[in-house]
Please model this.
Amino acid sequence: MLVNYIISGSNLITSLLLVGIAIPLSYRKIKPNRLYGIRTKFSYSSDENWYRINQYGGKILFKYGIEAVAKRLGPDSHLKSNQIMAQILLEYDEHRV
Model:
């Protein structure tokens, strides 16, 4: 029983961290760098590409981070993190930049 609370708490913290990471990206506050953001050859090709790609990625992370927090606190708290990640990847594939 204690293990379930620990896992649930760590999932909630991870979900909140996801939201916190997403906010600066979605507001175009993160300059091109090698540590934080969506780092691809295309995103590094220009500043505009960097900001556009990371703004879109930040919005997706924020959306699913909030959804993950809600699911951790709500009646559907059994939803697993890999299901949330699968949703993120499917949405990204449907809306490629």
About this structure: The CA atoms of residues 32 and 47 lie 7 Å apart. Residues 47-73 form the longest helix (27 residues). The chain has a mean pLDDT of 82.
